[in-house]
Design brief:
Length: 155
Amino acid sequence: MNITFSCPRCTQAARLHLAPSATQLTCPHCNSSIDFPPEALIEERVQRCLVCPSTDLFVRKDFPQRLGVGLVAVGILGSCIAWYFRLIAWTFGILFATALVDVVLYLIVGDALMCYRCQAQYRGAEGLDRHGNFNLETHERYRQASARERQMHTS
């Protein structure tokens, strides 16, 4: 299993391969260690976040959002150009081709587990069905808590 996280000490992004018997994460930049309880990781099944104490995790497609938005933007731009030149068949062909590429990518790309609180990403983890999909209410709760914390530090 791979984990991508932001080190709480140096705030650098780090990506580590995690052995099933691991009991801590070590930042490759500052060498600080993050110990996690043994019940947090059972047989490569993540029970709670290994970086922070959060138990709120969600499953999402492991696909870069910017690339997805770029694909949609290219499809829209191409179809708008075809529409401008009154090429109706090309307009809808481009839109359908973009949708087809999107569906194929959805079927091919695997899933990743994400933490709402610290945005740690777990790839290759087992038992993703234990965790739900993205929940906007939970995300908003953590976003507001983070904003309050930043506001308290600046005051």
